[in-house]
Model the fold of this input.
Amino acid sequence: MRKIKKNDDVIVIAGKDKGNRGNVLQVLGDHLLVGGINKVKKHQKPNPVKGMTGGIVDMEAPIHISNVAIYNTAAQKGDRVGIKTLGDGRKVRVFKSNGEVIDA
Done:
């Protein structure tokens, strides 16, 4: 079970965007695409077949999973995630600080 999944609210804990929050758009192995985080400029060639214009495009680059922490709204800060097995055998993610279940 992954500790950070798609659509999780995360906060950056290291790097140029430290302290910024965003939503996980895509999980790429040990990297994440987070909305509004790690923006880079890409020089793009025009492609008339796909209807794309050329120029400099702003896009999100992947950020390593170790540089983000899942955001705990109760504590108003980033938190570590643990995995707990419930009585009925289901595994759920929980916050390490207060033991609150992330996904029911």
